[in-house]
Amino acid sequence: MFSFLRWAFFAWLVLTSPAVLAEPPIVAAASSLQFVMPELAERFQAQGGAAMRVNYGASGNLSRQIAQGAPFALFLSADEQSVLTLYEAGLTKGAGVIYAVGRLAWLQPAERGDLPPGDAPLSAVREAIDAYRAGQGRPRIALANPEHAPYGVAARQALQHAGLWDAVAPLRLLGENVSQAARFALADEARGGLVAYSLALAPAVAEQAEHRLIPADWHAPLRQRMVLMPAPGDSARAFYDWLQGQEAGAVFARFGFQPPGDVDGR
């Protein structure tokens, strides 16, 4: 018994030590935020805010992790439904807010064929289909998996709008999330891909690629909603509030996101 009490006391000291208690809150963030989130977190810290740990992934996958008990404090989704489903299940602190409206873009490696014109932004997909049917190779078209990635859903809708979804089936290269889809779009075997506009604008991507914005009415609006978990802590709550301010809004805008009030994404 004495040994057990000593062990329990030691465990209590470890778990309540400042080093453990000071662990940064974990933020679950959609992959479309991979390049914008580091700047947001850095600016928040520069103004006296706490450090954040960020886990990126497809919104559907992150939502499932939360439902299974993942210790996130804040969830920034690339859609609304992933958040609202959690809210309806009683797993969040309220229904959250829309923090940005995303856009979809065609992304292709620099100098890999002509960039599609603005009035036919998916012409490269049609060319890839024609080349495949003519036996001229298998130029792949990358997109995020629509089963759990909101930008994958938007990509499917855009391809359906252009009448290309079924025809492009043998050429599809599905990423686990939209960030992976962007990497696939720049691979040697790819003609390009449909990805988040925010990723296409990131300097690390823009220096090796070119892009064409997809008309907003070719897919459902990408209303991106964020929400706090039931016991987020003061630091995560402060970051949540800060993300709704003007400075954060300016950073989002620079990466191609539109403001929350622009719910139609136009």
TrEMBL record:
<dbReference type="InterPro" id="IPR005950">
    <property type="entry name" value="ModA"/>
</dbReference>
<dbReference type="GO" id="GO:0046872">
    <property type="term" value="F:metal ion binding"/>
</dbReference>
<keyword id="KW-0732">Signal</keyword>
<feature type="signal peptide">
    <location>
        <begin position="1"/>
        <end position="22"/>
    </location>
</feature>
<keyword id="KW-0479">Metal-binding</keyword>
<dbReference type="InterPro" id="IPR050682">
    <property type="entry name" value="ModA/WtpA"/>
</dbReference>
<keyword id="KW-0500">Molybdenum</keyword>
<dbReference type="GO" id="GO:0015689">
    <property type="term" value="P:molybdate ion transport"/>
</dbReference>
<dbReference type="GO" id="GO:0030973">
    <property type="term" value="F:molybdate ion binding"/>
</dbReference>
<dbReference type="Pfam" id="PF13531">
    <property type="entry name" value="SBP_bac_11"/>
</dbReference>
<feature type="binding site">
    <location>
        <position position="178"/>
    </location>
    <ligand>
        <name>molybdate</name>
    </ligand>
</feature>
<comment type="similarity">
    <text>Belongs to the bacterial solute-binding protein ModA family.</text>
</comment>
<protein>
    <submittedName>
        <fullName>Molybdate transport system substrate-binding protein</fullName>
    </submittedName>
</protein>
<feature type="binding site">
    <location>
        <position position="32"/>
    </location>
    <ligand>
        <name>molybdate</name>
    </ligand>
</feature>
<feature type="binding site">
    <location>
        <position position="59"/>
    </location>
    <ligand>
        <name>molybdate</name>
    </ligand>
</feature>
